[in-house]
Design brief:
The complex is a heterodimer of chains A (about 375) and B (about 90). By secondary structure, chain A is an alpha/beta fold. In chain A, about 35% of the residues lie in helices and about 15% in strands. Chain B has a 3-stranded antiparallel beta sheet with strand order 2-3-4. In chain B, strands 1-5 form a two-stranded antiparallel ribbon. Classes of the chains: A alpha/beta (about 375), B alpha+beta (about 90). The structure holds iron/sulfur cluster (SF4) (2 copies).
Chain lengths: ~375, ~90
């Protein structure tokens, strides 16, 4: 661990504006305002810096990245810097013309998110009427524009039983890859945990369904599958380890080691307006704070998995234990692991109403 | 043909997959959505011939001649690598 590897990917959150209001949105509870967004020239400079320090891929996300009028110019800058570009979108603002412009600008791939396959439920979850129909149309347009497409389904207790139809939809659209991602319980997802967390029985059925489909569709469709931590015995290697692979840039231009890091207290995240990406990666205290294994206490410190999962997620450790430097409670070796079982026990027979992602909808005590 | 692969198929990079030289790490990579494959020299020799036009047979013949190696040895390596990348969605067969 003596030499620092360069980062692999940039997560560029271009804006927090979004017409949808998904109750599991990975954005922070306090959303950045449009007036404070990083401008085009700054994004273009940041992309060139990213390529120069060894970043290979850029994921344009948000919010809804297509809400930015200058997206084609930003995509073009990525292509000119030699970055592989991926658009992570809800699709509802795209049409044939804007897609053609993005393809022409050099976009490499689009990932289109779905809330469900059942239209009324999809629109209810996303909080956007007519959204699902629009997405089906946009998936068709993306294929017609010749852009490689990944369908992304975020799954939870209120749509999980339609997993087979989700996989079938991916096949219908000729997607090469689909992503079945269980909600991760940070930020808005944590606020809505009781409304979203599946039961163990639901989760096991889903995992089995994915495994069977993978065998059946081998060589035809890649299925990426992300499980929730709440029934796990070991945590995920969150972001591949703190400040090891990714740099996330917020709409306002703060550089974070992970998109949820602003939930952690006591940090002063560097701004790309005043710091170069190279400096941020090499020496910003925020990036150094949990990089590697030095910061670890027991049980991680002497654990043989410490360079496999890097002690799990710092944001989850903070959200569930109040201390960002503790072992992720998703780990069965964590003294706090009981909070996971308690959450499962608390989810109740009927899901409570959603608290939608809206500005000012939740007190952020 | 080895492991049931037809010699007449013309392997191609899957849509959205790009072969690129990484200047900072000084090596070749296959870039795909949400994934990245580091390519060693042997794999690079194969992938440079993967263009959706050359058939498996042509690729194997070319490599066997260039490296002056037994054809079935080359065939085993090529088929194993292409299969693996196809299963991971980076190549279409
Ligand atoms: S998760 Fe939903 S609300 Fe959040 S950015 Fe994506 S589409 Fe918008
Ligand atoms: S103790 Fe720490 S390093 Fe070991 S498995 Fe658990 S989280 Fe990972």
């Amino acid at each position: 661990m003596s030499t620092l590897e360069p980062p692999l990917a940039l997560l560029a959150e271009l804006t927090h504006r979004c017409p949808l209001q998904c109750p599991y949105c990975s954005n922070p509870l306090e959303l950045d305002r449009a007036s404070g967004e990083l401008d085009t020239a700054n994004w273009i400079r940041v992309l060139a810096e990213a390529a120069a320090i060894g970043i290979l891929q850029v994921h344009f996300s948000g919010g809804e990245p297509t809400a930015r009028k200058d997206l084609p110019a930003i995509v073009r800058a990525a292509a000119e810097s030699g970055l592989y570009s991926n658009l992570i979108t809800s699709g509802v603002l795209l049409d044939e013309r804007s897609l053609a412009t993005l393809v022409e600008a050099g976009l490499d791939h689009a990932q289109l998110s779905f809330q469900d396959v059942e239209p009324a439920n999809a629109d209810r979850i996303g909080g956007f009427k007519g959204g699902h129909r629009r997405k089906l149309e946009v998936a068709r347009l993306i294929k017609a524009a010749g852009l490689p497409l990944t369908l992304n389904f975020v799954v939870h207790r209120q749509n999980l039983e339609r997993l087979p139809q989700m996989i079938a939809l991916g096949l219908d659209f000729g997607a090469q890859r689909i992503e079945i991602a269980h909600v991760q319980y940070y930020g808005w997802g944590l606020v809505n945990r009781d409304a979203l967390l599946p039961s163990r029985v639901q989760l096991d059925a889903a995992t089995e369904e994915v495994e069977t489909a993978r065998l059946r569709l081998k060589g035809r469709l890649v299925i990426d599958y992300v499980v929730p931590d709440y029934y796990a015995a070991r945590p995920k290697a969150c972001m591949g380890g703190w400040a090891r692979r990714f740099i996330n840039i917020t709409p306002a231009g703060l550089a974070l080691p992970c998109h949820a890091a602003q939930s952690l207290p006591g940090f002063d995240f560097p701004s790309v307006r005043t710091h170069s990406l190279a400096d941020i990666w090499q020496s910003s205290p925020a990036f150094l704070r949990f990089r590697g294994t030095e910061w670890m206490a027991e049980p991680c410190r002497s654990c043989e998995r410490r360079e496999i999962d890097w002690g799990g997620c710092r944001c989850q450790a903070f959200a569930l234990t109040g201390d960002a430097a503790r072992t992720d409670p998703a780990c069965a070796l964590s003294p706090d692991h009981g909070v996971m079982e308690a959450a499962v026990a608390a989810r109740g027979g009927e899901p409570p109403p959603f608290r939608y992602r809206r500005i000012g909808a939740v007190e952020t005590a | 043909m080895n492991a049931g692969l037809n010699a007449a198929v013309a392997p191609a990079l899957a849509p959205g997959v790009k072969l690129r030289f990484d200047k900072v790490r000084e090596g070749w990579v296959l870039l795909a959505p949400e994934r990245l494959f580091v390519i060693d020299e042997q794999a690079l020799d194969i992938l440079k011939l993967v263009d959706g036009a050359r058939t498996l047979k042509v690729i194997i013949d070319d490599l066997a001649e260039r490296f002056d190696a037994p054809r079935d040895l080359i065939e085993t390596d090529v088929v194993a690598m292409l299969r693996d990348l196809a299963d991971r969605g980076a190549i279409t067969l």
